[in-house]
Amino acid sequence: MSHSAKEFYPLTIAVLTVSDTRNDDNDTSGKYLAESLVEAGHQLAERKIVIDDRYQIRAQISQWIADPNIHVIITTGGTGFSDRDMTPEAIQPLFDKNVEGFGEIFRAISFEEIGSSTIQSRSLAGMANHTAIFCLPGSTGACRTGWSKILVDQLDSRHKPCNFVMHLEV
């Protein structure tokens, strides 16, 4: 894809909350991401909540990966170390390519905010079928960090010297 770096290209983004306890009323992280991406000029494709079950997570992500109208998927939750946290195990096998730098930079930025506790974040990202997938922790603060300090720029076609838009089929 070759787009002019001077032009903004709105993306269609799906948001998935992974949680055994969140619902539409108390999902502040999913709500924050949905509102923020729309505020940045993108379109919310869909927002869903699934329980911490690797097969339900994988099924929903696979459905969105297969949809040519969805350019980006952002998940929140399930990236910690509890027995139920399954997001990395569910999603990583679907990646065509890992984006190692995402988790690294997320933890580096997060270290400045929460100190060494960031080591327990298994935040990750990858590409699958020309769809970018970013997995953030479940706290609203972590979603704010991931969105405002990484994703808002990396999902903007005008961001230099590079961004993810050039790798998507927009």
TrEMBL record:
UniProt keyword Hydrolase present: no
Pathway this chain belongs to: Cofactor biosynthesis; molybdopterin biosynthesis
Pfam families, sorted: MoCF_biosynth
Keyword terms: Molybdenum cofactor biosynthesis
InterPro entries for this protein: MoaB, MoaB/Mog-like_dom_sf, MoaB/Mog_dom, MoaB_proteobac, MoCF_biosynth_CS
The keyword Zinc is assigned to this record: no
Record domain MoaB/Mog: where: 14-158
Record-linked SMART domains: MoCF_biosynth (SM00852)
Source taxon at top rank: Bacteria
Family: Belongs to the MoaB/Mog family.
Described function: May be involved in the biosynthesis of molybdopterin.
Protein name: Molybdenum cofactor biosynthesis protein B
Organism: Celerinatantimonas yamalensis
Lineage start: Bacteria, Pseudomonadati, Pseudomonadota, Gammaproteobacteria, Celerinatantimonadaceae
Gene field: moaB
